[in-house]
Design a protein that fits this description.
This protein has 474 residues and is α+β, with helices and mostly antiparallel strands. Helices cover 40% and strands 21% of the residues. The chain contains 15 helices and 16 strands. A hairpin with a 4-residue loop joins strand 13 and strand 14. It is elongated and about 90 Å long. The two termini are 56 Å apart. The structure holds adenosine-5'-diphosphate, magnesium ion and zinc ion.
């Protein structure tokens, strides 16, 4: 335990604007290759880029949401390199004067809350996409010019779990702000992870490796864990870690060298003469700030205070804005936050996982779930039957009340009917009755279960309990 890891992350997020950053081509994903291109994003000679104002607004939303200082003046720069997937052979990015700097987010760690600094957030254009197929390579330029923000963190994290928590939080904020769809498989949210190790107590940073090619939170954590072990082993033997870029292989869980420091590119950045410096005045900034929604941390705190939820439930319910809104719609109809939380994080999430859909696509709407909770709370149906009704809503999309009525699922609270069922169960289970009377009180569960079976789950469990105690003693 004499070494510790230091982790800093670079995240690229696609902004979900309608058009690209410097031309009016659509920025949408999935079109036929090379159908969403024009002379500007194809890098034809003599064209001029025109900055998309919505891109700046979206980038500012993120910057303000994570407490960055937004620069009054920022500058677009050319990052020069031979890019087979970017015909201009330079990428328009920001370098010395980025849009925003000095932000932070907070994450929950095993040791409590931790602050992770955001070094900078800048805007840039994405490159196209190459696909390699044997000896052939193909290029799709639909993605050239799709707007990105790059979010660079301080090297403030020290475990793969912290890096995972940071990424999940960034992801949640981007989704709350409605500026990025967050789809990691489609590359809308990508992460490069920088990691080094050093002897505990040491101040200076060790030599880092930069990991690429991790397309899920889990894989970022796996890649980092592997790399920390690899570097620690080298240092423990007195060796030296070399600075390099490494690729993560999800199948083997290992990282392999991709290029070393010597092969690092010299991008020869310089201000793009085709674009004037970007000016953001106070009024614009304040306009954007006042349009920000309630963010995950604030919502989580409010859920604990207002609904008496556990920190855990509140965290889970606020990770996605649509889920939080579903929860609030539900409790606005029925005042039972705990039950609403249980239904959402239990049965509803499992439907979402099974079908791979968001909460908006589950056929059980918030009002229907509220009605179902209401029917249980008022004793019309038992908790057990409620699950059956839930499944029927899923199948039919009908109202819980109608389902209960039509299928005759109302809970049996009629004492003579229940008494008959209890008597029958006692009569057919002499051995269990004997054992129960002899002190095996655990058998209460057996009796209740049998009565439930006879009544098809409709018996009021509390009344059944009382009846059994009355008949067999407590
Ligand atoms: P580059 O653009 O060349 O990758 P940056 O200086 O912008 O370099 O750093 C990128 C990321 O690497 C940042 O998130 C930063 O926190 C992190 N980082 C820098 N040095 C180290 C280090 N020695 N160990 C771990 N992370 C580091
Ligand atoms: Mg880097
Ligand atoms: Zn274009």
């Amino acid at each position: 335990m004499e070494f510790e890891a230091v982790i800093g992350l670079e995240v690229h997020a696609h902004l979900s604007t309608q058009s690209k950053i410097f031309c009016s081509c659509p920025a949408t994903y999935g079109a036929l290759p090379n159908t969403q291109v024009c002379p500007v994003c194809l890098g034809m000679p003599g064209v001029l880029p025109v900055l998309n104002k919505t891109v700046v607004e979206y980038a500012m939303r993120m910057a303000l949401a994570v407490d960055c200082q937004v620069a009054e003046h920022s500058v677009f720069a050319r990052k020069n390199y031979f890019y087979p997937d970017l015909p201009k052979n330079y990428q328009i990015s920001q370098y010395e004067n980025p849009l925003a700097e000095h932000g932070k987010i907070e994450i929950e760690t095993a040791a409590g809350r931790k602050r992770v600094g955001i070094t900078r957030i800048h805007m840039e254009e994405d490159a196209g996409k190459l696909t390699h197929d044997g000896a052939k390579s193909r290029v799709d330029l639909n993605r050239t010019g799709v707007p990105l923000i790059e979010i660079v963190s301080e090297p403030d994290m020290s475990t793969p779990e912290e890096a995972g928590a940071y990424l999940r939080k960034l992801h949640a904020i981007l989704r709350y702000l409605d500026i990025c769809d967050g789809n990691m498989e489609q590359g809308s949210f990508r992460c490069d992870a920088n990691v080094s190790v050093r002897r505990k107590g040491e101040k200076a940073l060790g030599t880092r490796a930069e990991l690429k090619n991790m397309n899920s939170f889990k894989n970022v954590e796996r890649g980092l864990a592997f790399e920390i072990n690899r570097q620690t082993a080298i240092c423990a033997e007195g060796g030296v870690v070399v600075q390099e870029t490494r690729l993560f292989d999800a199948t083997s869980g290992r990282t392999e060298p991709m290029r070393g420091k010597e092969e690092a590119h010299d991008y020869r950045y310089f201000p793009d003469p085709d674009l004037v410096p970007l000016r953001v005045d106070q009024t614009w900034k304040e306009q954007v700030r006042s349009s920000l929604p309630e963010l995950p941390d604030a919502k989580k705190e409010r859920f604990v205070a207002q609904y008496g939820l556990s920190a855990y439930d509140a965290e889970v319910l606020t990770a996605e804005r649509a889920v939080a809104e579903y929860f609030e719609a539900c409790v606005s109809h029925v005042n039972n936050p705990k039950q609403a939380a249980n239904w959402i994080t239990g049965p509803l999430f499992s439907v979402m996982n099974q079908k791979g859909v968001g909460i908006g696509d589950v056929p059980v709407r918030a009002e229907a779930l509220a009605q179902l909770i209401g029917l249980t709370d008022s004793g019309v149906i038992s908790g057990k039957i409620a699950k059956t009704v839930f499944d029927l809503i899923l199948e039919t999309g009908r109202q819980p009340r109608d389902i209960v009525e039509e299928k005759g699922l109302t809970q049996v609270s009629d004492s003579s009917e229940l008494e008959a069922a209890v008597d029958a169960v006692i009569a057919e289970s002499p051995a269990e009755v004997e054992a129960y009377k002899g002190g095996k009180k655990k058998l209460m569960g057996f009796f209740v279960g049998q009565v439930m079976k006879r009544t098809k789950g409709k018996a009021n469990p509390q009344m059944v309990n009382e009846l059994i105690v009355k008949k067999l003693g407590s």
